[in-house]
């Protein structure tokens, strides 16, 4: 709050010194209560007649002045508190708006990130499917080539084995070769 540097000091006004009225300048001091002037009994003039109506009127004026001062202090304090409350409400609303904006921004960023992840996943799956298709095509080509060549190899092997014949045929041929070789040596 806005605090003035003046002290809360009661002062006597010169024309009212005789009546004992006190003029108090009250300022809001955050560490103390509003200063209420101390009660000073009114000075009664030395004479036969005492004007009680005048004393009562001055006392009433003094009480009214004190009451008005207290009311002014109260309303000034209340006005400051209202301003602080309004400032606090404004700050809360600004903070809520900022938080909502931040949340919206984060949500948008998260949505974009999810979309990028989904695109990346789809792209990887397409690449993998394409790669699998290429690998399958290569395997089929290799297998078809192997089948053609392997079939040719089997034909060659079967012809080679077929020319040799079965195991018994090969044995007979060997034996025949041995017998012929032996008979040639004897000659």
TrEMBL record:
GO terms for molecular function: tropomyosin binding; troponin T binding. It holds the Pfam family Troponin. Residues 98-142, 166-187 are annotated as: Disordered. Signal peptide: none annotated. GO terms for biological process: regulation of muscle contraction; sarcomere organization; slow-twitch skeletal muscle fiber contraction; transition between fast and slow fiber. Troponin T is the tropomyosin-binding subunit of troponin, the thin filament regulatory complex which confers calcium-sensitivity to striated muscle actomyosin ATPase activity. This is Troponin T, slow skeletal muscle. It comes from Peromyscus maniculatus bairdii (Prairie deer mouse). The lineage of its organism: Eukaryota, Metazoa, Chordata, Craniata, Vertebrata.
